[in-house]
Amino acid sequence: MSKELLGALDVLETEKGIQKSVVIEALEAALVSAYKRNYDQAQNVEVQFDQKKGDIHVFAVKKVVDQVYDSRLEVSLDDALAISKGYEIGDDIKFEVTPKNFGRIAAQTAKQVILQRVREAERNIIYDQYSQYENEIITGEVERQDSRFVYVSLGKVEAVMGRQDQMPNETYRIHDRIKVYVTRVENATKGPQVFVSRTHADLLKRLFEQEVPEIFDGTVEIMAIAREAGDRAKVAVRSNNPDIDPVGTSVGPRGQRVQTIVNELGGENMDIVEWTDDEAKFIANALNPAEVLDVIFDPNNERACQVIVPDYQLSLAIGKRGQNARLAAKLTGYKIDIKSESEASAIMEADQAADEQPVSDDDVTEAPAAEEDTTVAPEAADDVSADAATSETADNADETSDATADDSSAE
């Protein structure tokens, strides 16, 4: 058994990367328990494994005392001095108590320990390996799918992708190879658990880093991302080099760079806008492809503003189901109230008239009908009212928005 055990330890270290010392330490601890269990012993026991010969020795450890109360745990000073004159009270003495038939028990225990340690070591190796990929992109293969998860093979581990992390416009089939973003890695009791996503905003960031060298090396920086996975995304970029156009660089020649990302994400539309310190200009850029005439900040709320757009571009600014305004609000972090030019002028004239005309206590004025709300808060994902324009105008504007967005990306 000794030669076989030594050979098995060498194989483990060579093929599995499990250090021999780790297995031996676990084996010695397991043999202590096995000895006590099989021989009904309660004394302090220590097991030593000879790494050269593979022999196993069991020792009973007893403490030197003046008066012995438990012979299994203690030895008298006189008996200790009979063994060696150097012993003193408080010293520990080891007495070998290796049973003759302990080899069979040791072999069974060694097998169990080795299997257990192999599993644990493989889990730790896998955890250490894949924890390095946390917050990064990795390519995997779809293995199976159930009502809760899509299971993606990453090689040595099977990652899970929850429903909220699955693209609504994608169908995952067995053996499909997909790029996923590793959101977190957990070292669970049953083994490492890797969670991946296709909808995370940082997936888009990593894809841009792969396709745009200037973003990877930091010359162009992604400042913010607002994304509705599978449908549309807005990306704000800035350049740390005044000679480099951040939008043009990100789009690439004839839109090749951004088109590669769009294809990877199943046709998700991409608006790339320039980030600037001028918040009014940044808000106007974020509402691309709509034209913005003016941005008026709310003096009572530093994170709110009113945006004035031409009448014919109101639906374009709001977007399909409020999407353009919603993404712009997420991108900038501002609560955006979109008004058409004529509506804003009417409100301004009404306010001026009210200021100029004195109001008598006897005057009773009927309150005007409430304006339809076109305000979008950054955190309000679905509370945008796009009814400011007729449905026909909105549909035409949607088509204009898609065409304009594509032209913006290609420039």
From TrEMBL:
One of its GO terms (biological process) is transcription antitermination. It is found in: Cytoplasm. Residues 349-411 are annotated as: Disordered. GO terms for molecular function: DNA-binding transcription factor activity; RNA binding; translation elongation factor activity. PROSITE patterns: KH_TYPE_1 (PS50084). Residues 352-385, 395-411 have a biased composition (Acidic residues). It comes from the Bacteria. The keyword Protein biosynthesis applies. The keyword Protein biosynthesis applies. HAMAP family: NusA_B (MF_00945_B). Monomer. Binds directly to the core enzyme of the DNA-dependent RNA polymerase and to nascent RNA. Belongs to the NusA family. This is Transcription termination/antitermination protein NusA. It comes from Levilactobacillus hammesii DSM 16381. The lineage of its organism: Bacteria, Bacillati, Bacillota, Bacilli, Lactobacillales.
